[in-house]
Specification:
This protein has eight helices and 14 strands. It is an alpha+beta fold. The protein folds into two domains: about 130 residues, Roll (Elastase, domain 1); about 170 residues, Neutral Protease, domain 2. A five-stranded mixed β-sheet has the order 6-3-2-1-7, covered by helices on one side. Strands 5-4-8-10-9 form a five-stranded mixed β-sheet. Strands 11-12 form a two-stranded antiparallel ribbon. The radius of gyration is 19 Å and the shape is globular. The N and C termini lie far apart (about 55 Å). Bound molecules: asparagine, zinc ion and calcium ion. Calcium ion binds next to helix 3 and strand 11.
Length: about 325
Amino acid sequence: REAIETGSGTSTYSGTVQLSTTKGGDGYQLQDGERGGHKTYNLSQGTDGTGTLFTNPTDTWGDGDQKAAVDAHYGAAVTWDFYKNVLGRTGIKNDGVAAYSRVHYGDGYVNAFWDDECFCMTYGDGEGNKNPLTSLDVAAHEMSHGVTSATAGLNYSGESGGLNEATSDIFGTAAEFYANNATDKGDYLIGEQININGDGTPLRYMDKPSKDGGSKDYWSSSLGRLDVHYSSGPANHFFYLLSEGSGAKTVNGVSYDSPTYNNVKVTGIGRDKATKIWYKALTTYFTSTTNYKAARTGTLKATADLYGSTSAEYKAVAAAWTGINVK
Ligand code: ASN
Ligand code: ZN
Ligand code: CA
């Protein structure tokens, strides 16, 4: 059996991080010594195959091509720990089996994606190969697509597609807060570090989704016609409202001001409870065709299971849905 080692890495977005690695051959490799043995590979700008497992003579990582790999390896470990320690889920399929990560996909590729077929995570390097899409919230967002696929199986179009996307933003955000990383503090923004718009603005905003110029803040009957990354808006907004409540608030130094439909007042119950409610609903009540109305019903059932149907949590869940115009 190869020895489990704790290495150190200089990441792109999370500062200096500890890495779980494995000693093998002439040095070390980016193979987690725990967490199902998650491995991180270099595609070296290619677009197919598994790539080359990252290896290093010492257990200190981060030079050149390794830098994005440090983020990816760290992101996979944090996401694993988040699901295990917060939600009691061991691995994406809850079977203890690890996925694997591939970095440096393509040339100037501005996306990252989860693939059920390879059961693997892939990251592009961004515009001009300058901003790899390896921030923790993006990593946890993508791997959460694997969790949704293994559970509710929300169809990736129409309202269910928006709920699928929102599920990834919700757990991506919850994992970012869970990591409590000094360089990448938790926030209700998605992709705030990867400069995907070229002007430093985030990809998405959970407190007021319309700030991205395409997402909706509230449900309406035409929501399901939008791209799933926009129809996710109201559900992201629901999660923000349930966690933090309506109105103005500052969390970890970031200021939010979350509006509600008809100025409904929502009292937040905290992110941890909101996360557990969404997960219970996803894994117990949501199906491939769950729409916003059914998500309201499903999360209320999940809340009744967890906290009782006369609880403050139950009232808050109802108010948060009403706050995004889901009655
Ligand atoms: N980054 C995109 C997403 O997770 C990739 C995709 O294939 N949809 O939504
Ligand atoms: Zn997604
Ligand atoms: Ca974020």
